[in-house]
Amino acid sequence: MSIWDNLxxxxxxxxxxxxxxxxxxxxxxxxxxxxxxxAGVVTEDPxxxxxxxxxxxxxxxxxxxxxxxxxxxxxxxxxLGGGAAQIDPQTGLLILAACLPIGIVGLISGKHQGxxxxxxxxxxxxxxxxxxxAMLFPAMVETYAILALLISILSVxxxxx
Amino acid sequence: MAVLQMQRISIxxxxxxxxxxxxxxxxxxxxxxxxxxDVDDGxxxxxxxxxxxxxxxxxxxxxxxxxxxxxxxxxxxxxLSSLEGKKLVEKDAFNQVVSERDxxxxxxxxxxxxxxxxxxxxxxxxxxxxxxESLSPWLALDVPMDAKGTKKVAMLLGTMxxxxxxxxxxxxxxxxxxxxxxxxxxxxxxxxxxxxxxVFCLRQEEAQVEEVLRSGGFSRPAQSVGMxxxxxxxxxxEEIQKLKSEIADTxxxxxxxxxxxxxxxxxxxxxxxxxEKYEVLGTLPQSQRTFVISGYVPAKAVPAIQKAxxxxxxxxxxxxxxxxxxxPPTLLKxxxxxxxxxxxVASYGxxxxxxxxxxxxxxxxxxxxxxxxxxxxAYGAIIAIGCLIALKKFPRMSKGMHESLKMFMFCGxxxxxxxxxxxxxxxxxxxxxxxxxxxxxVTIKPLWFAPLNDPMKLLIYSMAFGVIxxxxxxxxxxxxxxxxxxxxxxxxxxxxxxxxxxxLLLMLIPSEIFASIAQAQITFPPAVNVAAKVxxxxxxxxxxxMSGRANKNPALRLALGAYDIYNITGWLSDVLSYSRLLxxxxxxxxxxxxxxxxxxxxxxxxxxxxxxxxxxxxxxxxNLAINLLGAYVHTNxxxxxxxxxxxxxxxxxxxxxxxxxxxxxxxxxxxxAE
Lengths: 161, 674
Description:
The complex is a heterodimer.
Chain A: H1 8-44, H2 49-57, H3 61-76, H4 89-126, H5 131-158
Chain B: E1 2-3, E2 6-14, H1 18-28, E3 32-33, E4 44-45, H2 49-72, E5 87-90, H3 91-99, H4 101-135, E6 153-161, H5 166-176, E7 183-190, E8 194-202, H6 206-215, H7 229-255, H8 261-281, E9 285-286, E10 290-298, H9 302-310, E11 315-320, E12 332-333, H10 336-339, H11 342-348, H12 359-374, H13 377-393, H14 399-422, H15 429-437, H16 455-483, H17 487-508, H18 512-518, H19 526-546, H20 554-566, H21 568-577, H22 580-599, H23 606-647, E13 665-668
Parallel strand pairs in B: 5-13
Antiparallel strand pairs in B: 1-12, 2-10, 2-11, 3-10, 4-9, 6-8, 7-8
Helix pairs in contact in B: 2-4, 2-8, 4-7, 12-14, 12-22, 12-23, 13-14, 16-17, 16-21, 16-23, 17-19, 19-20, 22-23
InterPro entries (chain A): ATPase_proteolipid_c-like_dom (IPR002379), ATPase_proteolipid_csu (IPR000245), F/V-ATP_Csub_sf (IPR035921)
Subcellular location (chain A): Membrane
Keywords (chain A): Ion transport, Membrane, Transmembrane, Transmembrane helix, Transport
């Protein structure tokens, strides 16, 4: 039996790691971009703090989706409490593949949602009463992260261990 | 559930009652000013610009005085004070303060002057401190800095570049002017950038010595005082002390006016009201004896105006329905539950003239979807109870805030219901606590099913709710077209789409794709299958032929029809978009269970309990905050993009009545005009 036959669990854990770190990195970039814009607005008008903070938080959800998929994967492969399940390489790779959508889409959409949030913060700075509309633009980007999350969740839960 | 019917009301009255009538209308606050555009002969507008500006300036002055008071004597406020709303002031008390307005304005003036004085003195201190700073290297010098020396001996003060030592100065002098012998150099102090020198030499050689030193980088001090530096410093410090104590006195004086804060607020509002009144006054057409005032009033408020103005003054009140081309302001009227989401509709855009008010229908879907996305009974209870307490405790909060809190309260209740259906109470806290700390796991059974165990089932339901939501939207579009008498449009744009979509749905449900997602095979009787095909094909053909009906060219018409059928992809993506109901619901539950799991890591021990409590509070607070935001944003999105996209345009102008638009106080009318 070669070492390759024992790597199932490693692949699965790698999947969880990818989901968490790519999506988390996307959110970190996005929240960072939006945060710079938000800080600029608050220097001019501290009373808009609450509104721009909400805007800044919008790209933060991808990281949470990544965490969600990572957590589902960990509980699937039995790493959370109880012993790790026996996983053959094929199942491990299946789990890895299931984690990819939220990881990759999370990274890219997080960054772009951050840029959109920064632009929406510009709207709030000039026209605070248009908050409702401004919030919608970043939410549009998020749709695709949600779709990716959905596929990741469905695939992870569907794989039989 | 409706857009209130507006009517135009025009009042023609005597000029002597002008102010009284305007004040009455302002106090009622139910009329939006809209003067009939052109001024006829004999009518002209009064120039009130100057008066208005002067009132605004006074309001601004009171405002600045309040800022000054706030800086030196901050008002004690609780964290929730923003919820308190404007203070209620009796009309009599208001008039009492207004009668003292000149003294109050003087006070305001004084406060602003004080604050200017303080600013000037602070700048003065800064200047003095700079002087002390520039003196500090010379402190060791025990003669005045501008001392010229004695009859025979001259003194030169100045700086040389950093690193200069006594030896190097003597060397320079010896090298460049060997004939000079009587030179004494003292280094008063030195730092990294410069050495501070006092040089003594014979008076007749002064120029020569300075020349030599200058070639080595010598320069006279930029500032020189006619005193011994040490003494100069002391006197400067005394001056600073004096300024500081003066500032303290002025600050005390400012604090002495803290009792006037309320008066300043009232006066600021008083001038704001007057400025507004004069702004309207400036737009009124006036003749020598009469004036005309015109504007929009909600139809049901007309009798109130009739009673308050028409019966009391010599005037003619004319009420008329709106003309075809008039675009009146929009005011919505809904029941207590639905009115709480009016602000959400308004943030998209109020209905324009003749458009259906979607608030009531939207409010049910809004609360339903919000609860589904958050779906945790405990979180829902926290939100609902928190909002309820705030609503009860601060009954005078601003209207917008009141409506928002009410909306969140309803959403909290809905969240609680969904939480019970899905079995989420702080995620799985009951399981985790009972297992970790009491040894035997207890699970609260979900009333319906746990989404995490069967996500596909919830996905199907999410999309089904989505289809219902979208069909309702399309239905409203149909209703509006029927109401406008466009029967053909209704048939082509609405009925055909219904047929097409329902046919497709009925074809999809028995198919294998659906069966694999729903994990259940549904079989319809053959008649339904045939009906499904008939509906789908009939709808598609109808759309192909009819969508481009505005075009005469048959080829173009078919092409437009085909393009309209292509919109089916839009429907597909709209329905898929409702999968966020599942995704966000799962996110709440899963993060909550991550928190619980982290908290229970240390197991059953004292430290374990402490860790659990800390992690529980911080973790769930964060999870609640972030998912509350998510649920709010995405519920809005589902309404704005998917639902409104089917029928709603918006773009109405909000109703902005001429009223006492105050900032701090609400004046309670002693006589009720209703």
